[in-house]
């Protein structure tokens, strides 16, 4: 298919005609040769049948006689006289049992004359170039008395077929050459004006409209095509002039040409006028809009730059936050560890406090016993004090008695001297007793004060011990609550640790995302800068468009 | 005045070996001495019954064996400085010329044997309240003991009561 597209019309016409001619000639040759073969074969078969029937008819009487009377030489004579056909190669006569009775050239080809089914097998064998014919020799009452076997050569038949084929091929070749030449000439006649038109329109297609008109003298299809193409060429020239005027900015010219293209051209001019008008309006609006967009774009650029800076700051802050989160995570782990250590310490403290409470209870019991003993001691001391007071009173009375006795002794004169000495001694003893009781009283007072102080101190200590035991109990209960709180704190701090680790991961992801956001913000800033530049360029283009549109001259 | 100590300061050589027995007692840091014959009884201090319209040195009266006796506070009478550490623990029943009265004492030393040579005339710079009522003075354990002239004391006290 590719080759046929490249061929010119003349060659296409010639090739098509030659192909059709070749097919036709080939078909005719095949039919001719086949017919010739059928005819020759029918002739051969007919001749073969006639020879077989003739020989059978001649041999029948001889074979119908008794075997002793039959003479093979007679049979062979008959065969030689009868078989004058130059294509007959061999002949053989057999009895009903297949015994050879006589023959001609059949010894060499004994094998080929072996009995074989006759019936409907082909009568010739093209491979062996021979035809075998087997015929029954029968009497008039149709009794088989022998078999006639013949073989014919197909050499002459083949020569006739070859000759017919050569004749057909020669005739066909001559016909093909003549037909091809005629077809090429016709194609050339058709293609020549078309080739000229093609060249002309190729130039027109290349933009060269200064082409001469075609010769349209003939009234055939080529002539009509040339006339139509001339009209088309003229119309294109006119439209070209209009297009040149439009290109020069003159939209005021009237197009006189007719047809769809001219109408379309007029519509195009009208559309151009409308478009230029609208473009002028649009360019004015666009100039305003681009100015506004430029202003906005610059503001956006500033905003984007600020945003990028903010995103960068946020990224830095998030990185600091991530670092802080890591520190918090580490601190939370430390807190968890400290909470566990504190929980253990508080448990130890609670155990110690329990022991302390028990010790305080023992101390309280001991202090109570001591206090009771001291109170008892104080009571005894008070009793001693009472006794001492009694002794002191007695001593004081003794002192007074002695003193009064001494006075009476003095008043008695010489008689009372001995009495005076006794009284003085009594008085001295009484004074010693008083002095001793005074010291004892002083000691008792000190002992009492000491025991009172001890009782007070013991009671205070007892009270303090009770309070201490109570406080210790409270502290123990508080420690229990602290243990619970610390356990909760430990769990909470563990959860905080996990949460801060998750937060750490999250902040890392946020930092990564913020890095990407920062990149995107930078890209956005770059895009807005490019947009600003593009809008600036668009503004310049709009100005140029406005100048360009001002050149158009309208109706 | 048979019971006066009758010291003879002009004739010390004749009284040099004479030993006097004096009853010494203390009140508010001041030591007093009287002749033993004037002391009827020393007993523990009893609570006096105050008398209306009486001077402040007269603490009241005390009933001893049916006899109502006035009680004189010597420290107030002689306007001595009160010693806060001392309390009246003894009451001394005195008899002078059949005038019985009681004086308070914080401490009674008792009878002291004093040589006549140890007695001295009262000092000229005695307190005004003591002047005229002290017959003599002597030293006892670094303390000055005033020997009271009970006649003068009793007369003056009567005058002060009547006035």
Task: Tell me about this structure.
The complex is a heterodimer of chains A (555) and B (163). Helix content of chain A is 79%, strand content 6%. In chain A, α2 runs antiparallel to α3 (72-82) and α2 runs antiparallel to α4 (155-205). In chain A, 18% of the residues are buried. Chain A has a five-stranded antiparallel beta sheet. Chain A is mainly α and 555 residues long. Mean pLDDT of chain A is 80; it is low at 109-127. Chain B is globular and about 45 Å long. In chain B, β1 (19-27) and β2 form a beta hairpin. Chain B contains two helices and ten strands; from the N terminus they run βββββαβββββα. In chain B, the strands form two sheets. A five-stranded mixed beta sheet of chain B has the order 8-1-2-10-9, with no helix packed on it. Classes of the chains: A mainly alpha (555), B mainly beta (163). The interface between A and B is medium-sized, with 12 and 13 residues.
User: What letter string, H or E per element, gives the SSE order of chain B?
Assistant: EEEEEHEEEEEH
Assembly type: heterodimer
The helix/strand class of chain B is: mainly beta
Number of helices of chain A: 7
- Class by helix and strand content of chain A? mainly alpha
User: Taking strands numbered 1, 2, ... along the chain, how are they ordered across the largest sheet of chain A?
Assistant: 2-1-5-4-3
Proportion of residues in helical segments of chain B: 10-25%
Measured distance between first and last alpha carbons of chain A: 55 Å
User: Mean pLDDT of chain A, as a whole number?
Assistant: 80
CA radius of gyration of chain B is 16 Å
Topology as H/E string of chain A?
HHHEEEEEHHHH
Q: Span from first to last CA of chain B? A: 26 Å
Q: Roughly how much helix do the residues of chain A carry, as a percent range? A: over 70%
Number of strands of chain B: 10
Rounded mean pLDDT score of chain B: 85
Strand content of chain A: 5-15%
Q: Could you tell me the number of beta strands of chain A?
A: 5
* Largest interface between protein chains, with number of residues from each side: A-B, 12 and 13 residues
**What portion of residues of chain B belong to β-strands?**
35-45%
Number of helices of chain B: 2
């Amino acid at each position: 298919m590719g080759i046929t597209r490249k061929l010119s019309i003349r060659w296409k016409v010639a090739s098509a005609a030659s192909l059709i001619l070749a097919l036709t000639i080939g078909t005719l040759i095949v039919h001719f040769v086949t017919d010739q073969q059928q005819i020759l074969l029918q002739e051969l078969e007919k001749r073969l049948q006639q020879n077989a029937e003739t020989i059978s008819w001649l041999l029948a009487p001889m074979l119908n006689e008794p075997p002793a009377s039959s003479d093979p030489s007679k049979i062979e004579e008959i065969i030689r006289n009868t078989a004058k056909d130059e294509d007959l190669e061999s002949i053989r006569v057999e009895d009903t049992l297949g015994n050879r009775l006589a023959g001609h050239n059949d010894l060499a080809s004994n094998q080929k004359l072996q009995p074989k089914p006759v019936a409907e097998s082909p009568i010739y064998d093209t491979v062996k170039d021979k035809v075998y014919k087997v015929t029954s020799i029968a009497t008039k009452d149709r009794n088989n008395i022998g078999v006639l076997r013949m073989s014919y050569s197909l050499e002459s038949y083949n020569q006739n077929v070859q000759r017919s084929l050569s004749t057909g091929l020669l005739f066909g070749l001559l016909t093909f050459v003549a037909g091809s030449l005629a077809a090429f000439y016709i194609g050339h006649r058709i293609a020549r004006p078309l080739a000229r038109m093609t060249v002309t329109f190729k130039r027109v297609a290349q933009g060269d409209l200064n082409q001469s008109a075609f010769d349209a003298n003939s009234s055939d299809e080529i002539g009509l095509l040339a006339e139509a193409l001339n009209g088309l060429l003229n119309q294109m020239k006119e439209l070209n002039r209009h297009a040149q005027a439009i290109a020069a900015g003159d939209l005021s010219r009237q197009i006189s040409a007719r047809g769809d293209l001219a109408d379309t051209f007029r519509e195009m001019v009208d559309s151009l006028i409308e478009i230029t008008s609208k473009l002028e309006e649009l360019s004015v609006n666009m100039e305003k809009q681009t100015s506004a967009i430029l202003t906005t774009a610059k503001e956006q650029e500033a905003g984007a730059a600020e945003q990028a800076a903010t995103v960068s700051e946020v990224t830095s802050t998030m990185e600091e936050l991530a670092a802080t989160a890591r520190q918090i995570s580490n601190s939370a782990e430390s807190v968890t560890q400290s909470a566990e250590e504190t929980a253990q310490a508080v448990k130890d403290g609670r155990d110690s406090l329990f022991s302390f409470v028990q010790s305080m209870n023992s101390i309280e019991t001991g202090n109570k016993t001591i206090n009771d003993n001291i109170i008892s001691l104080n009571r005894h001391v008070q009793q001693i004090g009472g006794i001492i007071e009694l002794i002191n009173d007695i001593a004081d009375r003794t002192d007074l008695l002695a003193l009064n006795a001494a006075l009476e002794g003095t008043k008695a004169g010489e008689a009372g001297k001995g009495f005076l000495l006794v009284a003085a001694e009594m008085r001295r003893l009484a004074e010693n007793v008083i002095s001793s009781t005074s010291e004892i009283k002083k000691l008792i007072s000190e002992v009492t004060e000491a025991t009172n102080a001890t009782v007070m101190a013991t009671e205070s200590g007892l009270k303090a011990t009770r309070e201490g035991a109570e406080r210790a109990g409270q502290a123990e209960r508080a420690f229990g609550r602290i243990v619970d709180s610390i356990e909760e704190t430990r769990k909470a701090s563990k959860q905080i640790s996990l949460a801060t680790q998750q937060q750490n991961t999250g902040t890392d992801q946020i930092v990564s995302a913020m890095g990407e956001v920062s990149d995107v913000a930078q890209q956005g800033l770059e895009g807005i800068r490019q947009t600003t530049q593009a809008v600036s360029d668009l503004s310049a283009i709009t100005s140029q468009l406005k100048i360009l549109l001002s050149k158009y001259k309208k109706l | 005045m048979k019971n006066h100590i009758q010291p003879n300061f002009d004739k010390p050589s004749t009284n040099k070996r004479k030993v006097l027995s004096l009853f010494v007692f203390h009140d508010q840091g001041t030591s007093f001495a009287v002749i033993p014959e004037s002391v009827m009884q020393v007993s523990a201090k009893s609570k006096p019954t105050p008398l209306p319209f009486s001077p402040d040195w007269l603490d009241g009266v005390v009933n001893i064996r049916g006899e109502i006796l006035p009680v004189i506070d010597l420290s107030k009478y002689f306007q001595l400085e009160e010693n806060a550490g001392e309390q009246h623990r003894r009451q001394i029943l005195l008899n002078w010329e059949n005038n019985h009265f009681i004086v308070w004492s914080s401490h009674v030393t008792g009878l002291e044997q004093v040589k006549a040579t140890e007695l001295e005339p009262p000092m000229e710079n005695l307190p005004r309240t003591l002047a005229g009522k002290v017959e003599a003075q002597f030293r006892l354990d670094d303390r000055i003991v005033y020997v009271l002239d009970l006649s003068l004391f009793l007369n003056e006290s009567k005058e002060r009561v009547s006035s």
